Amino acid sequence: MKALLTINVAVYVLWALILVHIPAVRAFVYNFVALNPEVPLILFRPWQLVSYNFIHLGVGFFGFLHLAFNMLWLYWIGKEYEELNGSHRLLSIYLLGGLGGGLLTVLFYSLAPGSVIVHGASASVLAVLMAVAITYPHKSIALLFIGTVRLIWVVIAFLVLDLLFIAGSSTAVTAHVGGALTGYLFAKAEAGGRDLSSWTLPLLGERRSSRSRSKARKPDGFFERVGSWLGGQEPEEARIAGRIGQAPRDNEPAAPAAKADDIDRILDKISERGYESLTAEEKQVLYEASKR
């Protein structure tokens, strides 16, 4: 999480303050880093399907809002998902969401040719929001002036407004739709037992499932190194594993062996209200489950 946020923010600051004012660099970024979905041009620059969702090229107030909107939503919704499911799953959704958004944009502009430059993390962020909304269907968030709303309705409302008011802009609505669709398919596939995230483990220095209990170690993956440099902390997945697996206090009651439904209910409660909302009995259930 820290690595994704920092890469996006650092690239934007560097771009807005320095690089955008250098004509040769500006031309290079627009032509080779941002997504140019024209076919066959994209066939010779396939890396753009990944690189575009780490850059925000708008400068000024609205450019800053573009970055801030994406990063705040990624932090608000992604942080808890990362703690419960592991950093590699969050990274997988982010990268696959950007790829899915880019591919749908390429397909659209191959059928309806036009000139557009696509940039920003919106496709990846929408993939994360949709994956969380599908994985935890009761997940709700509090919105100013509106109240508590289920996350799935927030995502749907955003996509509808996107299609109504932003179509034809350089933000490329097709990338947003593609990202959300990728997040949906990712969540459904993972729920069906398919592993779509283990390929990112080497990037994080991981060699086994994030569900297992981890010992402290030196980070050896690229994204994990960045997070370690920034915070000097152990990986989030190890921290949450340790927290959930921590033995209850002596005065906490013992609980019988938990059923899968009980575990799912407790994890949903953590997703909606946080770990501290659990009762002593629910914490004991998680503790007993972590030992098996």
Estimate the helix proportion, in percent. Answer: 55-70%
Tell me the fraction of residues in β-strands, as a range.
Answer: under 5%
CA-based gyration radius:
20 Å
What is the arithmetic mean of pLDDT? Answer: 81
Describe the model:
With 292 residues, this protein is mostly helical. It folds into 2 domains: 2-200, Rhomboid-like (Rhomboid-like fold, Up-down Bundle), CATH 1.20.1540; 247-292, no CATH class. The chain has 13 helices and 2 strands. The protein has helices spanning 2-17, 23-33, 48-51, 61-85, 87-111, 122-135, 151-166, 173-191, 201-204, 222-231, 236-244, 260-273, 280-290; strands spanning 140-143, 147-150. Strands 1-2 form a two-stranded antiparallel sheet. Strand 1 and strand 2 (147-150) form a beta hairpin. The radius of gyration is 20 Å and the shape is elongated. The chain starts with a helix and ends with a helix. Mean pLDDT is 81; it is low at 209-218 and 231-250.
